Task: structure prediction
Amino acid sequence: MTASQFLTQDMEFSPQPLTDDARWALVTGASAGIGRVFCQQLAAQGWHLVLVARRADRLHALAADLKKRHETACLVLPADLADPGASAHIADELARRDIFVEFLVNNAGYGQPGYFQEVPWARHRDFVQVMVLAVCELTWRLLPEMQQRKRGFIINVASVAGLVSGSKAHTLYGAAKAFLINFSESLALENESRGVRVSVLCPGFTHSEFHDVSKTRDLVNRLPSFMWLDTDAVVAYGLDSVTRKRPRIVAVPGLFYRFLVWANHAVPGLGLAFSRRLSRRFRKLD
Result:
C-alpha cells in the first residue's frame, strides 16, 4: 500500500464541535468482531474514535452508526497493517490533524490455518507483520505523547492461546499471542509510574467473525457451549481491566478459561494433552 493509497480517509464529525479536551481512542481491526464492539462501547463512554481496518465501506458504516447513536466523531483510516509502512502513515495522519490518541486498542488480527510448512512464506510474513510488528510499532509511535501527558490506556488483544500449550496448525497464532502477552507485561511495568495503563486481553473462543475469516467455522461450531464467550462481555471485561483502580495486566475473561490457564501451569502435561485433543477435533489441518 502506497502513501497515496493509504490517505483516502475522511473525518466524520458529530453535530457538535469538538473541544480541545476531546478524548480520542484508536481501534485497529475496527470493522468487525471484537474491534467493532470495542468501538461501540468506547463511543457509549464518550470517546471519539479513530477507526482502522482494511474495509473502508464497513468503517464508514460504523462511523455513521456511532455518530447517530452517540454523536461520536470518527476519523476513518482504511489501512492494511500487513503493509510495513501503515503504522507510520497512521501516526503521521494523527499528527497532521493534531489528534492525541489517549486510548489505543491493538485488536487487528486473524488466524492462518494449516501446517506451518504447507503455508506459503508470504502469508506467514504478513501474519507476523499484522499480529506482532504492527502492534509494536503503532504502540511505539503513540506511547511517547501518552507518557508526556501522563495519561493513556493501551489494550493489546491477545488470546488464551498465548497462555496454554501450543497446538497443531495455526502454528504461529499462539506464538504471536504469547509474544503480545509478554510484551504487554513489560510495557505495563515500564509505564505504571508514567500514568499509562496497559492490559492484555486474552479471550478464548468468542462469538465473532474471526472463525469465518479463517474458514474454521464448521469445526469450531462443534465446541460445547460453555467454551464460548459473549463478545460484549469480553470487551466490557477488557475495558474494566485497564481502567479499574488496580488494572489487570493479563485479563482472561470467563471462569472456564481462567481455570484452563491455571490447570495448564499447575498440572504438567495436562495442557499439552488438551491441546492435542483440541487440535485433532477442531483445527483445520489442510
The mean pLDDT is 87. Strands lie at 10-12, 24-28, 48-53, 74-78, 101-106, 152-157, 196-201, 250-251. The chain has one domain: 14-282. DSSP finds eleven helices and eight strands in the chain.
